[in-house]
């Protein structure tokens, strides 16, 4: 085959793979939103089967032959060459796993997610415990099929899967810097005058909260003809293509800002893939966006923009119109203070920006311990509670607000949590540069969110996952990743907010 024929063959195989991907992603979105619970016994084996078909295709000899031939071929354009490189990198991690083993693991992820849900509802870790044990064993077993297995600690493989280039050494340094920088600020805040947040927890009818969702969508400019908003237990986004980026949210009647920040966060993810260069649509670069880079974009929108006063200047009066009773006597200044109030809390996704990384530190230390054998799955709820006591000075009253709050471990996402903190730190550095280049507050206050999206598009989004995080960082900010931006941003912000 000549180069052109090889590229055509590659594109054909890619197309086939994307058909499975489309089916699986759609079923996933459906399962977590409107699909009836009782149907899971019917659905799950079929999802596992489809995953197996997809797996066989992408790790099959035909695909590998084409990729390896393209790697050697002359006259391959730069883009395709890079796609091939990334795809081979990813396939090499999984290609030696026997397909039945792979399917078994997919089925385990589905069953274990159901067990987690049941355990969470019952607030009882012991229901989930045997599943978590199986999950860790299965993750470890899958690692043994890698060609380079044994060359580094197991957990390092998982960390690198979500964020290429990362390992425990680098995360330890990062988290130590974060802890050293932020714990003193958190402690000072506990002695400072507290911010009133009572109005946030009044009753806010869900029908009216849906109007807030629409308001935010209009303001940010999330195109509903290329996106969708549904409701799910845990907010998430599924990103298919430049023209199909879906999000979900969860409405709490007694906590109306939860929806606000979930929507802004998920739309942050969706905006990333909606702003891709046309020529990169339908390429492997969608898959190669790292988790840290993705979270940097969602958390940038949620926190760095969504919790700023400038963001609420044009929007706050609309909130008052929707909730005149609940927000009676609340000023814009009160509101902005309240949505930034910091303090120890149990639930990660509702945590403030300052204490958030400690929630991640806890999960990171537990994952590390589970993999090096220093922590066991038995009684992990106790370890969890001890760590919350140690870092945040609080003890969860039950497992639902403790160890069972996150879906990640049940669905096999181990090594993912650290990317949330890393993404937040990437975002600080991006924001620092963005503020040098454009007047961010002016854009927010005058309804020109498009200017911010333009900056994000030209500096980050349009390339999707073409660059590794370290390259992307230099391209957008002219310097390597430096966590000091994150620590400085939070220290300055909270020193001012609490007049420390
Ligand atoms: Zn996210």
Key features of this structure:
binds zinc ion; 63% helix; 21 helices; mainly alpha; 3-stranded mixed beta sheet; 500 residues
Q: What is the structural class?
A: mainly alpha
Portion of residues within helices: 55-70%
Sheet with the most strands, sense and barrel status: 3 strands, mixed
Number of helices: 21
Question: What is the global morphology?
Answer: globular
How would you spell out the order of helices and strands?
HHHHHHHHHEEEHHHHHHHHHHHH
Uncertain residue segments: none
Q: What is the rounded distance between the termini?
A: 69 Å
Largest sheet: spatial strand order: 1-3-2
**Overall pLDDT:** 96
- Bound compounds, please? zinc ion
What does this entry look like structurally?
This protein is mainly alpha-helical. It has 21 helices and three strands. The longest helix has 31 residues, at 3-33. The radius of gyration is 23 Å and the shape is globular. The site of zinc ion has 4 residues, from helix 10 and helix 11.
């Amino acid at each position: 085959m000549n180069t052109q024929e090889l590229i055509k063959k590659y594109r054909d195989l890619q197309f086939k793979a994307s058909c499975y991907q489309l089916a699986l992603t759609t079923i996933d979105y459906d399962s977590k939103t409107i699909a009836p619970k009782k149907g899971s016994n019917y659905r799950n084996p079929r999802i596992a089967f489809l995953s197996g078909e997809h797996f066989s295709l992408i790790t099959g000899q035909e695909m590998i032959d084409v990729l390896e031939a393209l790697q050697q071929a002359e006259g391959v354009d730069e883009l395709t060459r890079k796609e091939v490189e990334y795809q081979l990198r990813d396939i090499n991690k999984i290609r030696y796993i026997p397909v039945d083993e792979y399917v078994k693991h997919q089925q385990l992820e589905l069953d274990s997610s159901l067990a987690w849900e049941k355990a969470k509802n019952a607030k009882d870790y012991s229901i989930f415990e045997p599943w978590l044990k199986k999950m860790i064993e299965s993750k470890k077993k899958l690692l043994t099929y890698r060609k380079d297995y044994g060359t580094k600690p197991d957990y390092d493989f998982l960390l690198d899967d979500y964020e290429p280039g990362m390992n425990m050494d680098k995360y330890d340094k990062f988290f130590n810097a974060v802890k050293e920088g932020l714990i003193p600020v958190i402690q000072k805040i506990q002695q400072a005058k507290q911010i009133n947040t009572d109005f946030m927890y009044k009753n806010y009818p869900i029908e009216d909260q849906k109007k807030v969702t629409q308001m935010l969508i209009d303001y940010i400019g999330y195109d509903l003809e290329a996106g969708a908003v549904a409701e799910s237990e845990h907010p998430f986004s599924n990103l298919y293509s430049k023209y199909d980026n879906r999000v979900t949210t969860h409405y709490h009647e007694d906590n109306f800002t939860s929806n606000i920040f979930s929507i802004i966060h998920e739309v942050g993810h969706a905006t990333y893939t909606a702003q891709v260069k046309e020529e990169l649509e339908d390429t492997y670069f969608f898959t190669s966006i790292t988790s840290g880079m993705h979270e940097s974009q969602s958390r940038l929108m949620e926190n760095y923009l969504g919790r700023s006063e400038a963001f609420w200047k044009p929007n706050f009066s609309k909130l008052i119109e929707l909730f005149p009773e609940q927000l009676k006597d609340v000023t814009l200044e009160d509101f902005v203070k309240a949505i930034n109030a910091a303090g120890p809390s149990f639930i990660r996704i509702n945590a403030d920006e300052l204490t958030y990384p400690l929630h991640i530190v806890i999960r990171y230390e537990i994952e590390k311990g589970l993999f090096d054998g220093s922590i066991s799955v038995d009684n992990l709820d106790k370890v969890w509670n001890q760590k919350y006591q140690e870092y945040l000075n609080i003890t969860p009253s039950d497992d639902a607000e403790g160890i069972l709050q996150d879906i990640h471990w049940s669905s096999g996402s181990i090594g993912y949590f650290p990317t949330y903190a890393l993404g937040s730190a990437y975002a600080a550095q991006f924001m620092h540069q963005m503020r040098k280049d454009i007047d961010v507050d002016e854009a927010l206050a005058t309804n020109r969110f498009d200017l911010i999206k333009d900056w994000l598009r030209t500096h980050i989004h349009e390339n999707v996952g073409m660059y590794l995080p370290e390259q992307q960082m230099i391209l957008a900010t002219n310097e390597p990743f430096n966590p000091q931006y994150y620590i400085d941003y939070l220290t300055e912000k909270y020193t001012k907010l609490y007049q420390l």
